[in-house]
Design brief:
alpha/beta; Arc Repressor Mutant, subunit A; pyruvate-formate lyase- activating enzyme; 2 domains; globular; binds S-adenosylmethionine; binds iron/sulfur cluster
């Protein structure tokens, strides 16, 4: 039970809607009290946590891009680091080997090669990474590997896309974000309708049957008609999935624009998009970001689907990658600096390249899992019970009562489903599942960034 008044917590969450999203914790320092610093202790924590798992997912991060888009929040390098791709691959392979000693033959139920832009690497480099992962780990036969590209690379380098299919990747995702040339120019991102069309043609020719396109909303100079035009364009490309990302401003070059983007604006954009996509056969419950044309297919990669629904532990490798074990949360070197130096140094010393690692109490692990669940707009109660051995409805008794009274949630088929009204106020709903400490932190925050 929380000591904080739930109505006040809700109101504050709404006010801070730019940060009360699926990314938990609220700030890089929120979990400081749980931080482990000693090298040997870190290793022991990894061993003892991973030992208890039967299965997990893997994520590998590639921090290179053609250039850095001004809206981007990810770990992407620039300057001299840009030319250190081969050194990066060598270091990454060492990290993959270090984890092999701990993960051993545990089942791998999901894998994403993400970024940045993984296809910015040479085909041969991607192949070395993929082969090393398969040599070291026990991939479940049903696990489908997923990879990200930009449309420019998919359009200009068919051979590379074909090679990815031949390596075993079966889902591919590319960002279009917006087709508005003025916005693209302002964000420093290359793109044109010709490129997108050729990219899709190449992806199809290579054999991919699971293609996702990312679109973004919540930009200051993006009106509703503009967003609709992008949606309609993406639908015509006929991918299996379309994913909508509301722009997160924290840590981006356009952070100053955030305060002028209202909740009303983003809610309207999402609502229209949901209607348009559903009419075009791209289905998703209200509030979910990934829309799928395929029946019984969430549209997200195995890695993300299992993270969101089951809270499946995952290990992230590469610059700035995040790992969430049963009871720890870690960020690799580079998460804050977006530079390679410390990542390389730690690996060359034979240490795990971890920047921050926190041994989580149960309340924090629960908050982390539930914040991510809002990506799909529901909580699977059996999955929660299985992950924590706790009955959801008892643990969050007061919070559930509060949300039911407001008409923000309902229970169906052993799921807590966030209603349309709940989704429009989701920034106030998510903090209901925060730990006591994070609630107090939220109440104290006055400036968004
Ligand atoms: C790693 S990127 C995708 C692959 C590739 N680099 C590209 O841009 O085409 C994953 C997606 O995250 C989304 N994204 C990037 N910056 C974001 C931000 N600040 N907030 C929310 N989503 C963001 C974009 O839609 C992007 O396509
Ligand atoms: S949006 Fe994609 S291409 Fe642009 S900087 Fe981010 S990861 Fe790189």
């Amino acid at each position: 039970m929380k000591t904080i008044n739930l109505e006040e917590l809700y109101q504050k969450g709404i006010k801070m809607h730019h940060i009360t999203n699926t990314a938990y914790p609220l700030t890089p320092t929120s979990l400081m009290r749980y931080k482990i610093k000693d090298k040997e202790e870190i290793k022991q924590l990894l061993i003892s946590d991973i030992e208890k798992l039967d299965s997990l997912a893997l994520y590998v991060h590639v921090p290179f891009c053609q250039s850095r888009c001004r809206f981007c929040e990810y770990a992407v390098v620039s300057g001299d680091d840009y030319d250190k791709k081969e050194e990066y691959v060598t270091a990454l392979l060492k990290e993959i080997d270090m984890y092999q000693e701990i993960i051993k033959d545990k089942k791998i139920l999901g894998f994403d090669l993400g970024g940045g832009t993984p296809t910015q690497l040479e085909t041969e480099q991607i192949k070395r990474i993929t082969e090393r992962l398969h040599k070291n780990f026990n991939f479940d036969k049903k696990t489908e590997m997923s990879i990200e590209t930009t449309p420019v690379i998919a359009a200009k380098n068919y051979e590379k896309i074909k090679a990815l299919y031949d390596m075993g990747y079966r889902r591919i995702s590319m960002g279009i974000q917006t087709i508005n040339p003025v916005l693209l120019e302002a964000f420093g991102r290359e793109g044109s309708n010709n490129i997108y069309k050729t990219a899709i043609e190449n992806i199809r020719k290579a054999g991919f049957k699971k293609v996702n396109v990312d679109l973004m909303y919540g930009f200051l100079n993006q009106d509703l008609d503009d967003f609709k035009a992008t949606l309609e364009y993406a639908i015509k490309l006929n991918p299996e999935y379309i994913t909508l990302y509301r722009n997160r401003y924290k840590g981006t070059k356009i952070v100053k624009e955030a305060e002028q983007v209202t909740l009303e604006k983003v809610n309207n954009q999402y609502k229209e998009a949901h209607r348009i996509l559903n009419e075009a056969g791209y289905l998703a419950p209200f509030g979910k970001n990934t829309f799928s044309k395929l029946p019984n297919d969430e549209g997200t990669s195995d890695y993300l689907t299992k993270r969101v629904i089951e809270g499946l532990p995952y290990i992230g490798m590469g610059l700035g990658a995040q790992s969430f074990g049963r009871q720890y949360l870690a960020y690799n070197e580079g998460a804050s600096t977006k530079t390679l130096k410390n990542y390389f140094n730690k690996i060359n010393n034979g240490d795990f390249p971890i920047q921050d690692i926190y041994k989580l109490p149960e309340s924090e692990a629960i908050a982390k899992m539930l914040s991510v669940a809002f990506y799909f707009a529901f909580v699977d109660l059996s999955a929660f019970q299985k992950r924590f051995n706790i009955a959801f409805k008892e643990y969050f008794k007061e919070e559930i009562e509060f949300l039911l009274n407001k008409g923000f949630i309902e229970f169906k088929e052993n799921k807590m489903i966030v209603t349309e009204k709940g989704i429009e106020n989701v920034g106030g709903v998510i903090p209901m599942f925060y730990s006591e400490e994070s609630c107090k932190e939220l109440m104290k925050i006055n400036k968004i960034f």
